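Invent a record, attention on tokens:
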Amino acid sequence: MSEYLLTLNAGSSSVKFSLFDTANKEIGLVASGEVECLGHDACFRADKTGCGIESRQLGYANHAGAISHVINWINVTFPVARVVAIGHRIVHGGLKYTQPVLINSDVFAYLKGLEPLAPLHQPHNLTGVSAARAAFPALPQVACFDTAFHHGRAFNEEAFALPTSFYDRGIRRFGFHGLSYEYILCRLSEIKPEAASGRVIIAHLGAGASLCALLGGRSIATTMGFSALEGLPMGSRSGSLDPGLLLYLIEHDKLSTPQLSHLLYHQSGLLGLSGLSSDMRKLEASQDLAAQRAVEYFIHCVKKQVAAMAATINGLDTLIFTGGIGVHSAFVRAGVIAGLDWMGLDLNSNANQCGELCISSVESSVSAFVIDTDEQTMIARHTLEAINLR
């Protein structure tokens, strides 16, 4: 009987999953998919490696129902499979958890207490954990954290200019997208080993967007901070704002906390600027001026932040684009690189249009790559390590 690892990434309206074979203590993807549009119009989609995609409407399904459907599909599709562990993407590990950890009641309670720090993700991540633990109470379940990769940065990068009592109580710039950055670093080590220890900036550009500056294979600086709102504008999130503006909206416009939260998380970013969509593909295809301005604004902010990140590592040797926008938008990549030619970046336009691995020209003193991220594989690796160390 084959032993498999299951990874789960539970969001507000979907549960993504991947199934890995652990033969010879290595991992190989055998299937992946998701249950999307949780609620009354849930849809199941699965891709069995080498066998194509299947999909079906489920009608009503909550997180527990979605995970139950995933498990049933695995049992039918892989009748000789035995799931030995489940790995979960958990956005926030706080100050306590800086590496993957087996989930028990104490761990779960601590992570539950972090929900106010990541309200868009943490509650749904933990709902997925609860559903999986109910379905498989005897299986080891491992939490893998987006914040862990950034642990140990310098005081200047973690602290806010507030009274130090805030820092002491844990009000810090945590950083996110860590599982993605860790995977990209691993891929860079395979593609160009000497570059992985140099001055690297990874641009994870998607519905959620951030940058990370690395030196010696470690996170030195990142654009997201205390929450997943800071830094770049995103699909529907604002990115960094003047705190005085928030005070003004509270005092002058009388926005309540829920109203302000909804504005910043769900009505801003590309969606708010364009008034059309949070999807970069739709904005690039639109002839509407507001849509074009939203795209240019996004590119402008990425350029500024790349330069700022480079300052923290004293220059730049390698720039990597990943995430949905980073991998699929040649226009955004070209705009960012064109604005950074003074740093020694020079674009190979044909390679960029084709989405090739290396998109910098032979004359460029900075290498530029396009690498698709794979957080699920990173979760699977961490889960395998965690259960082997029990």
Observations:
- The longest strand covers residues 39-48.
- The chain has a mean pLDDT of 94.
- The radius of gyration is 21 Å.
- The domain at 2-145 is CATH 3.30.420.40 (Nucleotidyltransferase; domain 5).
